[in-house]
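Field notebook, page 458. I keep forgetting to write these up properly, so this time I am using the form the group agreed on. The chain and the ligand, N,N,N-trimethyl-4-oxobutan-1-aminium, are recorded exactly as supplied. Prediction of the bound pose follows.
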Amino acid sequence: MKLLRAAPIIRFLIPKLHQTMSRSLSTGVFQNSQPLNYRAGGRVQPVDSVGQEQAYEPSTGRVIATFACSGEKEVNEAIQSAKTAFKIWRQKSGMERSRVLLEAARIIRERSEELATMETINNGKSIFEARVDIEISWQTLEYYAGLAGSMAGQHVQLPGGSFGYTRREPLGVCVGIGAWNYPFQIACWKSGPALACGNAMVYKPSPFTPITVVLLAEIFTEAGAPPGLFNVVQGAAATGEFLCKHAEVAKISFTGSVPTGSKIMEMASKGIKPVTLELGGKSPLIIFSDSNFDNAVNGALMANFLTQGQVCCNGTRVFVQRDILQKFTEEVVKKVAKIKIGDPLLEDTRMGPLINRPQLEKVLAFVKGAKEQVSCLAVKMVKRNQTHHEVSLSPIGECRDDMTCVKEEIFGPVMSILPFDTEEEVLERANNTTYGLAAGVFSRFELCFNTSTLNRKI
Ligand SMILES: NC(=O)c1ccc[n+]([C@@H]2O[C@H](COP(=O)([O-])OP(=O)(O)OC[C@H]3O[C@@H](n4cnc5c(N)ncnc54)[C@H](O)[C@@H]3O)[C@@H](O)[C@H]2O)c1
Ligand SMILES: C[N+](C)(C)CCCC=O
């Protein structure tokens, strides 16, 4: 049974204003002291390791966790733990599985402020955004809980009164490997459908963000999942490879970059394992001059600066119809200047730091390269914060399709603005990318589009 895939469409989420809740943690305080691996229903230290990693609090650059990367033996232990739970879980009815997922969703909702705070500390995104992430996380589990009870096979009438039927059966032990930009949410996207369908899971988060997924593992146990149903191994590429190559893994669900996705597919092919890949993007956002101007500007800001621009489906190639180009660029620059950058745990902060120093350097190199490619380029460095993982907001004026910053995924707060004249021209250019992930259109006309072909219906 395949894991279900989230719709690859930009959703212009309007974050809700949440009630301010009391928090015991502030920036610069949290220090992890517990094991970060999880198997057989509890936190454990790995039985072997392939090196060590450190996780940081991006807003201060402090090390908040030092942990061993799980070796081959520990990966095997986690898979055996999942196998044990699978034997119990696969016998449960959909309704029984649904109850556990609904209870997990309820606990997440109840603990959402604590979870959002931890996500902010380890990832750097503003608490304002992290709350939305946690809300989407429990909604994801609720959604799959809703499907669990109604999954059924088919009955096929055959000649002579015979019949055939199909059953939907779980695969077994599924592996989830996640990225660092939405640590808790990605773990829910993967575990929700896998567990709802009767599978067990071993999950490996990014070594940059090891903290919150272990809280999810504890929540599943508290919700009534059999011990071993959802396990966590920590580590980087080597640990991920042990997981992908393990003979008893039935399926791999991966979220991350295109180069890693390609390696995962290759490893999976050796064991003829099905894979689900959620990879990077360089998505177009097309703004026609007839669109509601304020909506379009706000949409472009969200599609470029959410989570400091570190979002897979961001609309980073912003195509703007030429007659509104100047007005649009001026308005974006004005609004970007007002985005409050700072301590991500403060209520009014809307942008925190990038995930780490290498990511910041990568982003700044793209901006520098863009300046070199176009002499009249307007790069607006609006503001930098004072911590060591500074953020620069850089809407880049009048880019060309052949520029590196337009072709490659930057994964940072950089918006490339590209003028266009006609609908036919922009559809051609929007689709001219090696990535296929999301797309957005602002217009007053009725539109239909998919990730590979954009068609405008009047
Ligand atoms: N499409 C989506 O839904 C989605 C969502 C979030 C992020 N992303 C993409 O993720 C990328 C950013 O995340 P990242 O930097 O963590 O990506 P990444 O590819 O570097 O790492 C992703 C995960 O893969 C692991 N990994 C690395 N090498 C591996 C290997 N050889 N074998 C097995 N596992 C391995 C990492 O440890 C991490 O857990 C961006 O490209 C972004 O667009 C996509
Ligand atoms: C659609 N969300 C909620 C912004 C999540 C996107 C995750 C991709 O990086």
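OBSERVATIONS:
- The pocket of N,N,N-trimethyl-4-oxobutan-1-aminium (ligand 2) is lined by residues 11, 136, 181-182, 311-313 (CB under 6 Å).
- Residues 1-22, 375-383, 450-458 have pLDDT under 50 and may be disordered.
FOLLOW-UP: compare against the apo run.
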